[in-house]
Amino acid sequence: MDHERMRRLHGRHGVKMERVSFDTGFVSKALVANDSWEFRFERPAGFTYRAGRHVRMTLLKPRFRDRKGVTRFVSFASTPQDRDLVFVMRMRQTAFKRSLMALAPGQKVRIEMLVNAPHRAFALDDAACEPAVFLAGGIGVVPAYSMIRDALERGLPRKFYLFYSSRTAADAPFLEELQDLAAHHPSFVLVPTMTGEDASWTGRTGRIDGPLLTETISDLSTATFYIAGLPDMVADMRALLETQKVPAAQVLSEEFGGFAVAHGARQGGARLAAVGIFVAVAAAVALHLAAGAYVLRLGAIDLRNPAFAIGAAVVLAAICVKLWLVFGAGHRK
Description:
By secondary structure, the protein is an alpha/beta fold. It has helices spanning 3-11, 95-101, 141-154, 175-184, 210-216, 231-243, 258-298, 306-329; strands spanning 19-33, 36-41, 54-59, 71-75, 85-90, 108-114, 132-137, 160-166, 188-194, 204-205, 224-229, 251-255. The strands form two sheets. Strands 4-3-6-1-2-5 form a six-stranded antiparallel sheet, covered by helices on one side. Strand 11 (224-229), helix 6 and strand 12 form a beta-alpha-beta unit. Helix 7 (258-298) packs antiparallel against helix 8.
């Protein structure tokens, strides 16, 4: 998510979006699932937040750098009652995540957060009483875990459901913690399902689908839905709820993998640039051929003939443009 985009979007409706910034020290890290790590940071004095919200994290002294930059948007895995700020990420070999793994205790990062949640933000409404249904895939369980644990700790009088899809149980962050919460809180129903081969798993398998929802919840139209996961998963769940006649106003979502989307946008931009260069080269070739034909029509080479000199200059310019487009502009991408 882009904080500045949210400022512009909601500024049109008279909502002032204020942003706070804190530098906070790294505390520790721990493996919580296959390729998923928990990162703990000191909670700055006066820092308040709502469960499930996200921050923009910037590495101040990264050990590694790449074209994707030193900033990411990350969701809280902790609750406002916790002493530390906790974030969980699926690790990849990007410079940002390698630098995060290399942080030493006490090393600072900067976190920025919008103070007031915008309309239809991914957060629980404390005044609501209808069931809250979470559809989470993989690492998308992080904000759901934060919101559900916070609501149960505060004793909110509401029913909560979490349909949690993962490839295997070993890939599922917080699965044991969520199972423990469900065992001790009758208001929370956990429905985990695994989509990959997992010999150790004896529970449900397959993707989240209509029958799985309707056999657990008798009337889907009365609930508010929170979807969190990769963009494809979010799109599939929105389509599923549409087939179940759930009003769109009752569906909120949070997409993970925003940087993959941004990478796709860059690829699209690169393709557009390539098309532009191809068109320019084709135009230069056409100019070259036209100029050559013009020179040939002049007959014998005669540098004293102004028309010949102009035609030769055009040919030379066309050749230079072609060379620059192919060898110069192409290498700047």
